[in-house]
UniProtKB/TrEMBL annotation:
A Pfam family assignment: Usp
Span of domain UspA: 4-126
Organism listed in the record: Halococcus saccharolyticus DSM 5350
Name the record gives this protein: Universal stress protein
Superkingdom of the organism of origin: Archaea
Amino acid sequence: MYEILLCVDADGASLDRQLDAVTDLPSAADDVHVTICHVFGENPSGASVTQVGSVRRALDRLEDAGIETSVAEESGDPTDAILRLATERDVDTIYIGGRKRNPSGKALFGSVTQSVILNAERPVLVAGLND
């Protein structure tokens, strides 16, 4: 079974492209398992990961495609949480969303996506913003 960690943020700006990349995999319904992960920076109200709209959207679309799913919620530093979960679950690939940045922003490190790319010990697929 091919294991994917699908990292979903609250706004889901690149979610459709991430999901397209999963559902377009050969034999996805038979050979792929996706853990949908959301990292809460702060969660004083104790919200559950399944209360996040973009997580529900991902669950619905993957289930409609017949792809096996599970969910994981973390809190704290997003990069640390994503990398820890990827290791714990021994995923084959981390799928994460990207954001458009202005030219000066590209020179700065610090975004979650950049940190995951630079520190992951496994492949990272970065999906761009939805059209």
